[in-house]
């Protein structure tokens, strides 16, 4: 992996080092020392918008190129808004776009442009990008070895391979192999994150059910936030694959190799007809009437070339329409990874349901504790009322008046006894009322 990093990362230009050394040793015209450590060539590149791309061709050759935005737009025939999806400075949801000459893929860390002849990735130190490059190289080399072996094999094996040609990934076009690896990387990455979240979530939720504390509640809150964000990302990838599967036109648009072959065939056919339709000496048409002033051969060739390009585009559009009837390869590929990403989404949905069940259980526990507190408060209120009876009796007998009952020696005991019995009867009456009304489980 480190060798691949050193090979893919562009080396520091020597012009920047020379400029920096000369600027440090030579003062400016105003007599001031120039700013040290400023990379003039880097500023120029940033001003031009140059970006480093990793290019992987059909022969598994890797190359680092620096292309600006407009050159990339002309090279892949893409609008600016599609290139904006690949900008690492912006955060866009997962997207798979099929264009006339390229497929724009933005799936998690994998942001690339896939054509019929090459894959262009933004040069990055991310391990997932490097793994994508390595995996693509390995599969392209393996498929090349398989093709050579199939050419040397006998007739029976070739027939058997032709039978299973549509279901084997080695026989997919180049753009579908690159797209498959991107889908596999994205689905694997999301499934790994979902598994890590599951391993962390279930013990934490079980601990929360046994002990409700502020620390555990805060950890569950953070866990739920991560779960919601991950579910949104998985749902977006799933919706994107489902949208492609539902639209046959978009799937037919992604057959870049077939469209390229048809376009090359139409261009070759147009050139052949142009050679038959014009003379080799003066460039005049054999079938059209000869004008008094002969047109220059360059303009006639340019006109014929534009007509051939128009015919090729028309044939490409017709091939896209006819390809809608033969999209089983891409549909099976998308369906396989749709099942994988749907399984990941079901896993996250089950985890969310478990969290919701845990929250409901905690709410039930808190409601039970709250009901117990209310019942205890009701008992305390009843006991306070009974004790208040003693206060009323003490207040009555504490008034400043004289009666014969005060002079009896057992009067105080009788007052305490009668007051206590009356308070106990009142307390028991309240308990009986609570039980009858089912306000308290007694």
UniProtKB/TrEMBL annotation:
It is found in: Membrane. Residues 220-247 form a coiled coil. GO terms for molecular function: magnesium ion transmembrane transporter activity. Its main location: membrane. One of its GO terms (cellular component) is membrane. Pfam families: MRS2-like (PF22099). InterPro entries: CorA_TM1_TM2, MRS2-like. It is a multi-pass membrane protein. Residues 287-298 have a biased composition (Low complexity). CDD domains: Mrs2_Mfm1p-like. The chain crosses the membrane at residues 378-399, 411-434. Gene3D superfamilies: 2.40.128.330, Magnesium transport protein CorA, transmembrane region (1.20.58.340). Residues 287-323 are annotated as: Disordered. Keywords: Coiled coil, Ion transport, Magnesium, Membrane, Transmembrane, Transmembrane helix, Transport. Magnesium transporter that may mediate the influx of magnesium. Belongs to the CorA metal ion transporter (MIT) (TC 1.A.35.5) family. This is Magnesium transporter. It comes from Brassica carinata.
């Amino acid at each position: 992996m480190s060798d691949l990093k050193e090979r893919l990362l562009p080396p520091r230009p020597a012009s920047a080092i020379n400029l920096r050394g000369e600027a440090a040793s030579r003062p400016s015209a105003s007599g001031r020392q120039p700013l040290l450590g400023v990379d003039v060539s880097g500023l120029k590149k940033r001003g031009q918008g140059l970006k480093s791309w990793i290019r992987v061709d059909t022969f598994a050759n890797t190359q680092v190129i620096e292309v600006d935005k407009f050159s990339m737009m002309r090279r892949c025939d893409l609008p600016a808004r599609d290139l904006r999806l690949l900008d690492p400075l912006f955060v866009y949801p997962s997207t798979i776009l099929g264009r006339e000459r390229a497929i724009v893929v933005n799936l998690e860390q994998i942001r690339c442009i896939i054509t019929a002849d090459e894959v262009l990735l933004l040069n990055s130190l991310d391990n997932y990008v490097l793994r994508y490059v390595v995996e693509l190289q390995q599969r392209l080399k393996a498929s090349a070895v398989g093709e050579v072996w199939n050419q040397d094999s006998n007739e029976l094996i070739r027939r058997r391979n032709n039978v299973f040609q549509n279901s084997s990934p080695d026989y997919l076009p180049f753009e579908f192999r690159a797209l498959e690896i991107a889908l596999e990387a994205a689905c694997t990455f999301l499934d790994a994150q979902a598994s890590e979240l599951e391993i962390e979530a279930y013990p934490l939720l079980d601990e929360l059910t046994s002990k409700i504390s502020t620390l555990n509640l805060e950890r569950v809150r953070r866990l739920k936030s991560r779960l919601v964000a991950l579910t949104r990302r998985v749902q977006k990838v799933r919706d994107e694959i489902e949208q492609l599967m539902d639209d046959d036109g978009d799937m037919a648009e992604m057959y870049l190799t077939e469209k390229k072959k048809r376009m090359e065939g139409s261009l070759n056919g147009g050139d052949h007809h142009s050679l038959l339709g014009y003379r080799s000496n003066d460039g005049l048409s054999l079938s059209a009437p000869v004008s008094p002033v002969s047109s220059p051969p360059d303009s006639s060739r340019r006109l014929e070339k534009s007509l051939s390009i128009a015919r090729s585009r028309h044939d490409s559009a017709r091939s896209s329409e006819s390809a809608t009837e033969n999209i089983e390869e891409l549909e099976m590929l998308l369906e396989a990874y749709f099942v994988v990403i749907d399984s990941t989404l079901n896993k996250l949905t089950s985890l969310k349901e478990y969290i919701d069940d845990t929250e409901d259980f905690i709410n039930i526990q808190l409601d039970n504790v709250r009901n117990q507190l209310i019942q205890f408060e009701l008992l305390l209120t009843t006991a306070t009322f009974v004790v208040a009876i003693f206060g009323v009796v003490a207040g009555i007998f504490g008034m400043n008046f004289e009666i014969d009952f005060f002079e009896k020696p057992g009067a105080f005991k009788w007052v305490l006894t009668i007051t206590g019995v009356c308070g106990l009867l009142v307390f028991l009456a309240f308990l009986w009322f609570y039980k009858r009304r089912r306000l308290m489980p007694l």
